[in-house]
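Lecture 7, part 2: worked example. A protein chain together with fe (ii) ion.
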Amino acid sequence: MNILGINAYHGNSSAAIVCDGQLVTAVEEERFNRVKYAAGFPHNAVRYCLQEAGLTIRDVEHVAIPRNPWARMGTKLFYALRMPRFAFDRSKVLTRFSGIQGDLAKACNVDPESVQAQRHRVEHHVAHLASAFFVSPFDQAAVLSTDGLGDFASTMWASGRGNRLEVHGAVSFPHSLGLYYTALSQYLGFWKFGDEYKVMGLAAYGEPAHEGEFRRMVKAENGHGFRLDLKYFCHHQTGPQMSWPENDRTPVLGQLFSPYLEERLGKTRTPTEPIAKKHKDIAASLQAALEEAYFRLLNSLYQETGSKAVCLAGGVAFNCVANGKIFDRTPFAEVYVQPAAGDAGLAVGAAYYVYHQVLGHPRSFVMDHAYWGPQFTRETIRQAIKASAISGPNFCVREHATGELTLLAAERIAAGKIVGWFQGRAEWGPRALGNRSILVDPRRAEMREVLNRRIKHREPFRPFAPSILEEAAAEYFERSHPSPFMNLAYSVKPEKRAKIPAPTHVDGTGRLQTVSRSANPLYWALIKDFEKLTGVPVLLNTSFNDNEPIVLQPREAIDCFLRTNMDVLVIGNYLIEKPISHADPSPEPVLSA
Ligand SMILES: [Fe+2]
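Predicted complex, written out as structure tokens:
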């Protein structure tokens, strides 16, 4: 039984294939077309998934689409009558979805009549819930999906048991924690699609000095719900305007906040304006109010389900700061957030919803690692090196046995070098988790600034994340519940903060990745070798890119290595070093622990 899941005509377009209940592959379109958060139809991702699974489109029995234009039709009609522009946008969505068979045929280079798979429409948040629960390790769990908007809902909650999900409730447009966070991010000068995580990083620098104002903005409602005070917003009058100028471009969102917000909080920050204390305090207040509403939802869900385990999905599930506090502020003892918790994950969720809930098959799969994307052979890597400037006389290129490779790479990192690390299958979801990563020494506080200056060019207030051996998490962090997909932030123990200053955020937390030997033996061995050299079982891990989607192919990794001031590239078993540059003084040695 082959099921193709497709997130199309929406941000983070993606595809996934499930064969007899096992996930074979899942990948975002942005990794192929190099457009961040690419919307439109995922032509490349669909082609890759079929090829990886050894299938043609004729072998696919079911196509699962995480969108149901007919869901919540009453609410949609109500707003369509009030907003003609919105009605026009809805009609465009319906037209796009009616053409999906043609787009699928075009991607597979066949006639539309050849696409015989049964098509299933799965409501947006139902697919989010399925993406969280059906691949989790739990037989029973509470399940929560929270994001901006999808099929006219912003939040949905359910209980999961075996191969069934039972939806208990939802919050409909215009009330949305995701849109609230986006609106305030815009107010703070962060307008790009996906910028909310920057504001989450900024929040740690401020105090929630505007708590009263934000409590009026996001009000508690009895039971699970919350309501936005719509005076502060305009999306309920203009419609949720998400568009993309071309089929495969990054989505653009219209302004979501109203003039009343400026009356209350003062003039908006322009994107180039310096960040003042006031902006930091607003970010902190925004985050605090989100957390209040989030934990109200979660505590109500616990009361309703009695389950000690919770699965989370939707864009808000990327709020690692809030997720890390779940154990303190709710009775939940176990948390699962799959690596593509946002809209890319809908492709997996819709496919599993069809497999379990529609077709009734039992559960047999747990997503316990994130490595579901393309991989490349030694020969492809060798050819990519040969075709690049690396093959010239100035570079040192050596191939090593695996045991030697991890030790040599660990030595370079411990010596203060910036190491690009490209191995195996690409990660599913937005986080580099040790297969497409840039790695540096976490003991060197200056590496944050060095990384930004030489490669990443990110805002200085944004934190970098630590990867830690799973078995050492309790030694360094106040919590040790596994965080394999970097979506929980815990406090670093006070006595350890000076040991790993580079990935410790200003508030003493770290958005950690716990690395198990079973999930990624090579990455685990690299961190282990670093620990042998330094006594510290941690690396600073940031994504292998420079203001672009994470690199996917060897040539993209090589291009990034060549155009930035990265010192070392480890690609497959090749270790490549640049000629000595005097752009930066030699790093000071750090004494072993
Ligand atoms: Fe969503």
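The pocket of fe (ii) ion is lined by residues 124, 128, 147, 150, 314, 343 (CB under 6 Å). The chain has a mean pLDDT of 93. Keep this in mind for problem set question 3.
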